[in-house]
Design goal:
Thrombin, subunit H; 4 domains
C-alpha cells in the first residue's frame, strides 16, 4: 500500500503554524523604541547649541554704493558674524565641552539648552592644538549631563549616534558606525593638524562641531570635529579619552580662576565590557595616592574632581583623603602672582594692564581685539604724562606691534632709562599716538 503525500504535508503544516504565530512579537514590545530612540531620550537634555559672535575681516567694495567710492577699495574692515556649533554638558555646575574652532575669537557666546533657555557663556579654557574648549554657564539648578565613556576599546563597525546643531537645525540626530580609528587629518602643508581621530559614517555637517558622538549605551565616546567636504559620510571625532586626559589642564584653577592649588590629579580607568568603567582618582606625582575624597566629597570622575577644585577660593584649605577617610594631604589655596610684565608696566609706566580678549573687547565696545587693555593710570606716572587713559588699548610700543602679553613683556623691560618712546593706542574708534618720556 502506497503512503499518500497529503499526510506528510499536514504534519509539516502543524509544525510550521505554531512557529509562524510565535514570530510575531508580544504586544507589550514596542518595536519603534529602538536603541537609538532610547539613547536620544536619555541624552538630549544635555546636548546644547552654541552661537558665537565674532568679528571677521571683510574687504570694502565701492562697486554698488557711491558712499563707499570715497574709500580705498582695498580697505579691510571688521564686521560681526555669527557662527553655530554644538556642545554638551559634562558637569552639573555648568561646564560645557565644545571645539575650540567653534568659539575661537568669539566676542559673545550663548548656549541654548533643549528646554529653550539661552544662557551667556564664559570661556574657561581652550586648547587650539587639541581643538577642545571648556565653557561655563550658570543657573540656580544643576544641569543635566552626559556620561563620559571610554574610547580605548572601540570596535570597528559598532553603532554610534551623533547629536548636534547641523546648519542650525537644533538637536538633529544621525546614526552610523565606527568606520575606522586612529585617523590623522593633515593641513594644506601636509602637516598633521589633528591626530588619532575616530572616523564615522554618521552624518556630520557644519554646526555638528563640538557635539557628542555616542555609543549604544548613551556614553560619549567622541567629540565631532571635522568632515571631508569632498566626500559623503566621512566624518571625524576626537576620542573622549583625549578630553579626559586633558581635564587637569583645561579645568586648572590656576589658569581659570587665578587660584593656585598645589594639587594635581589624574584618572585611572578600568573597563568591564560592555559599558562599565571603574574610576579612581590619583594624585599625579612620583608616589601616587588614591584620593577618594576632596574636602569630604567623593569625586565621581576627573571632571567632578576638578569641578570641586574650581570652587576653592584664595585662603581656603583643601584636604585630600584616601581609603578609610585618612587625610594624607592638606594645602591652602593662594592667589596666583601677577605676570612680571604686568608688574613692570605698573612699576615703569604707572599703568595697570591686562591682555585684551575678544570678549573683553565686546564688553568695552572696542573694534580691536588684540593688545593691552589699560585698566587704571596713576596720576603722576609716565603713562599719564603721555596721555594714556583707562580704557585705552596699547597696540604699539616704539616700532613694534603689541598683540599679546608676550609681546608687551619683550618690550617693556627694554624701554630706555632716558629718552622718548612713541606709544600707539586705540581709544574708541580712533588710533592715537602719545610719547613716553623717560628721564635719568
Amino acid at each position: 500500500m502506497r503512503n499518500h503525500p497529503w499526510g506528510l504535508i499536514c504534519f509539516i503544516l502543524l509544525l510550521v503554524a505554531p512557529c509562524a504565530s510565535q514570530a510575531a512579537p508580544p504586544e507589550s514590545i514596542n518595536l519603534r523604541r529602538t536603541v537609538t530612540v532610547q539613547v536620544v531620550e536619555k541624552t538630549k537634555d544635555a546636548v546644547v547649541n552654541i552661537s558665537a559672535t565674532k568679528l571677521v575681516s571683510q574687504r570694502v567694495s565701492g562697486f554698488f554704493d557711491p558712499f563707499w567710492s570715497q574709500i580705498d577699495p582695498s580697505q579691510v574692515m571688521q564686521v560681526p558674524a555669527n557662527s553655530l556649533g554644538s556642545g554638551f554638558v559634562i558637569h552639573p555646575d555648568g561646564y560645557v565641552v565644545t571645539n575650540n574652532h567653534v568659539i575661537d575669537r568669539a566676542r559673545e557666546i550663548h548656549v541654548e539648552l533643549a528646554d529653550g533657555r539661552k544662557l551667556p557663556a564664559e570661556i574657561i579654557s581652550a586648547d587650539r592644538q587639541a581643538d577642545l574648549a571648556i565653557l561655563r554657564i550658570h543657573s540656580d539648578k544643576p544641569f543635566p549631563t552626559l556620561e563620559l565613556g571610554d574610547s580605548s576599546d572601540l570596535m570597528i563597525g559598532e553603532p554610534v549616534i551623533a547629536v548636534g546643531n547641523p546648519l542650525g537645525y537644533s538637536h538633529s540626530v544621525s546614526t552610523g558606525i565606527v568606520s575606522a580609528i586612529h585617523r590623522d587629518l593633515k593641513n594644506s602643508d601636509g602637516k598633521t593638524s589633528l591626530a588619532d581621530l575616530i572616523q564615522t559614517d554618521a552624518a556630520i555637517n557644519p554646526g555638528n562641531s563640538g557635539g557628542p558622538l555616542l555609543n549604544a549605551y548613551g556614553q560619549v565616546i567622541g567629540i565631532n570635529t571635522a568632515i571631508r567636504s569632498d566626500a559623503q559620510n566621512i566624518g571625524f571625532s576626537i576620542p573622549i579619552d583625549h578630553l579626559r586626559d586633558l581635564i587637569p589642564e583645561l579645568m586648572n584653577p590656576t589658569q581659570a580662576n587665578k587660584v593656585n592649588i598645589a594639587i594635581k590629579l589624574k584618572e585611572r580607568r578600568t573597563l568591564s565590557p560592555p559599558d562599565h568603567i571603574a574610576i579612581s582618582i590619583l594624585t599625579d606625582g612620583k608616589t601616587p595616592h588614591e584620593a577618594t575624597a576632596i574636602d569630604g566629597l567623593h569625586p565621581a570622575n576627573i571632571v567632578d574632581a576638578y569641578a570641586m577644585l574650581m570652587r576653592i577660593h584664595v585662603g581656603q584649605a583643601v584636604t585630600l583623603a584616601g581609603p578609610s577617610n585618612r587625610v594624607f594631604e592638606k594645602v591652602v589655596a593662594r592667589a596666583v602672582p601677577l605676570p612680571d610684565a604686568i608688574v613692570q608696566a605698573h612699576r615703569i609706566l604707572g599703568i595697570t594692564i591686562e591682555p585684551l580678549t575678544p570678549m573683553l573687547a565686546a564688553k568695552h565696545h572696542l573694534d580691536v581685539e588684540d593688545g593691552m587693555l589699560v585698566r587704571s593710570v596713576d596720576a603722576d606716572g609716565i603713562g599719564a604724562q603721555a596721555g594714556l587713559k583707562s580704557g585705552d588699548v596699547i597696540v604699539r610700543l616704539g616700532r613694534y606691534r603689541v598683540s599679546t602679553l608676550d609681546d608687551f613683556a619683550a618690550l617693556v623691560t627694554h624701554l630706555p632709562e632716558a629718552g622718548r618712546v612713541e606709544v600707539g593706542v586705540v581709544r574708541g574708534d580712533r588710533l592715537l599716538h602719545g610719547v613716553l618720556s623717560f628721564e635719568d
